Each structure stands twice: as structure tokens, then as C-alpha cells.
Amino acid sequence: MGLSSTPGVPHKGWHLNDVSDLQLDEGLIFGEYEDCEFCDQEQIRYVHILSHRDYSGSIRVGCICSCNLTEDYVTPKRRERELRNAAARRARFPDRKWRTTKRGGQTITIDGFRVTVGKLSTGKFRLWINSKEGTRSYDELRTAQIRAFDAVQEMRKRAEQQKDKL
């Protein structure tokens, strides 16, 4: 039984703090996802974290409950759609057209960053972003490419935050 039938739990006036992708952020897979704390909907991958001034702590709910509880039918959907789109871009990234380097690595330019994945003599793979070598090695090419995507997204986010500070 969810919080919707618990006396004293507000049904309106909540604030959306964050939206999290349990697969990307926490490495969970279907079957490990959470249930909506408000309505008990099972297996929500995209968790909306809400707070209320008359409720101690926060609650983790699905998109529909987030819209209803915040009385905002745009922002929660937009935030979840952004996460869904990012997850889809991440999954497709290794399948993009990569060029082969002179040394046999794979390279691509994304968002102004030149990403190269090269195979080491150990058989593992390493990343280079804008000619700066990474410190980690990966067992599979696809894993290295996905980690490269994550690194570029993080670098892009930091650059945007720096720009916003100016």
C-alpha cells in the first residue's frame, strides 16, 4: 500500500528535486527497479524525487505521480524525456560511424571533442579525449566507447557550468 492512502501525506504541493535513471545512475536492471512510493506502481526506471514542506524527507515516485503531486504537467515529463533521450543516445553511440586511425584505433568527434579508443598490447582498450590519455582500461571496445560518451557528456556539462558562472 503506497503513501496515497496514508493519512497525513499531502496529495498536492510537492516540489520536484531531481529525476534519476536507475539503470544509468545506479546500474540497476529491470527487476531491480523501484516501485513508486505513492501509488505502488512497480518497476519504475526513471525515479522522480519529490519533497514537501509538510512531509519529512523525500519520496521517490514515477512520472504520473510526479505530475499529479507537483501539479506541473510539463516539467516532470520534460525532465524524464531528457533522461530517456540521453540513454538512447548513449546506447547508440558505439554504433555511430567511427574512423580507423593510423594505429588501428577507432576515432570520432562529438560535441567538439575528439574521442579515440585504442587497443593496448594487453588486449584491453583505452580512451583518449582530445589527445589526453585516460587512466582506465576496458575489456571490450563497446564498453570503452560508452565510457567515452559518458566522459564527453560530463566534460560538456562542466563546460556549460563554467560558462554559466561567467
Question: What is the secondary structure topology, with strand pairs?
Answer:
Layout: E1 15-21, H1 22-26, E2 46-52, E3 55-61, H2 63-70, H3 75-92, E4 99-100, E5 106-110, E6 113-119, E7 125-129, E8 132-138, H4 141-165
Antiparallel strand pairs: 1-2, 2-3, 4-5, 5-6, 6-7, 7-8
Helix pairs in contact: 2-3
Trace the largest sheet across and list its strands. 4-5-6-7-8
**Structural domain tally:** 2
Query: Strand-and-helix sequence, N→C?
Result: EHEEHHEEEEEH
Percentage beta strand: 25-35%
What count of helical segments does DSSP give?
4
Largest sheet geometry: 5 strands, antiparallel
Percent of residues in helical segments? Answer: 25-40%
| Quaternary state of the chains | single chain
Low-confidence stretches: none
Secondary-structure content class: alpha+beta
Q: Which word captures the global form?
A: elongated
Distance between the termini: 49 Å
Number of strands: 8
Rg, please? 20 Å
Average predicted confidence as pLDDT:
93
Structural description of this entry:
The chain is built from four helices and eight strands. By secondary structure, it is of the alpha+beta class. The strands form two sheets. A five-stranded antiparallel sheet has the order 4-5-6-7-8, with helices on one face. Strands 1-2-3 form a three-stranded antiparallel sheet. It is elongated, with a radius of gyration of 20 Å. 19% of the residues are buried.
